[in-house]
Amino acid sequence: MALAAARRLLLHAGSRLGRREAVDGARRFANKRVLVETEGPAVMKLRNPPVNSLSLECLTEFTISLEKLENDKSIRGVILTSECPGIFSAGLDLLEMYGRNPAHYAEYWKNVQELWLRLYTSNMILVSAINGASPAGGCLLALCCDYRVMADNPKYTIGLNESLLGIVAPFWFKDMYVNTIGHREAERALQLGTLFSPAEALKVGVVDEVVPEDQVHSKARSVMTKWLAIPDHSRQLTKNMMRKATADNLIKQREADIQNFTSFISKDSIQKSLHMYLEKLKQKKG
Ligand SMILES: CCCCCCCCCC/C=C/CC(=O)SCCNC(=O)CCNC(=O)[C@H](O)C(C)(C)COP(=O)(O)OP(=O)(O)OC[C@H]1O[C@@H](n2cnc3c(N)ncnc32)[C@H](O)[C@@H]1OP(=O)(O)O
């Protein structure tokens, strides 16, 4: 209920902002954590500092922004990137999965599923300009895209590292990984929780291209231009043919997946693992 109300408020605020900024001549709209520019190729920038973690609020704003773009028939493609220096996205917000109650976990997971389904099955062309670290849910966002360009900086890593946290990537994360890099590579990378450097990610196929850091955005734009030259109807039908079975696999068991997540994440042993991981992140500083 609370989330539905927040969603209505955000949609309302979003459209107000959209109108005001359009009058200023800059075609863009923004929520607090997501900025969307629609001048030229549309660009969606995550800005949830310090690490673009996907909190419930951030997920909601992201989903709403995507919905607005999908509803604008003049927009055929979106570049997904980050405004936080050195970070694409740190993935799901660990604080949404730690020390909360089952109802919260269920609500959070429903929103994770919702964003994934929208992104993965989007009719728009999605290109990610990966300009920073992209572990776990950050990698998931990138994997939803039709093409991934990553900055050539060995400090940035990408991959589904869930097993390093003592948690398990859900079957639909796994399915998408398999679709992208093949069964053997996915099996190994998932068990080891591998975080790939840009060069390794390119080699294994997690990303499609690695370019110097200052060229990530221009490359993403030129990729978008190429993809925009393809007729929408044939490209969309082809995308749907490639992705539908994977999305349907989750759609037919959404409720069971929410139940699985809620009972898994509520376990004492899993909460303990998350606690240790969060402590490790804190100690990194000291
Ligand atoms: C068999 C049954 C199966 C059932 C299904 C169960 C399914 C469960 C699966 C759940 C899926 C989860 C997917 C995820 O996405 S989990 C999140 C994984 N993310 C990570 O591991 C990233 C962790 N973060 C980092 O590695 C680094 O922070 C960074 C992104 C490389 C950036 O490093 P940097 O040095 O710049 O910054 P700091 O590390 O100092 O971080 C700054 C502060 O941000 C906090 N932080 C970092 N990441 C997160 C996060 N993901 N969520 C929340 N908060 C985060 C960090 O603690 C610092 O906070 P502080 O300033 O308060 O200390």
TrEMBL record:
Reaction equation(s) it catalyzes: (3Z)-decenoyl-CoA = (2E)-decenoyl-CoA; (3Z)-dodecenoyl-CoA = (2E)-dodecenoyl-CoA; a (3E)-enoyl-CoA = a 4-saturated (2E)-enoyl-CoA; (3Z)-hexenoyl-CoA = (2E)-hexenoyl-CoA
Subunit note: Homotrimer.
UniProt function note: Key enzyme of fatty acid beta-oxidation. Able to isomerize both 3-cis (3Z) and 3-trans (3E) double bonds into the 2-trans (2E) form in a range of enoyl-CoA species, with a preference for (3Z)-enoyl-CoAs over (3E)-enoyl-CoAs. The catalytic efficiency of this enzyme is not affected by the fatty acyl chain length.
Name assigned to this protein: Enoyl-CoA delta isomerase 1, mitochondrial
Family statement: Belongs to the enoyl-CoA hydratase/isomerase family.
Pathway: Lipid metabolism; fatty acid beta-oxidation
PROSITE patterns (UniProt xref): ENOYL_COA_HYDRATASE (PS00166)
Record organism: Mus musculus (Mouse)
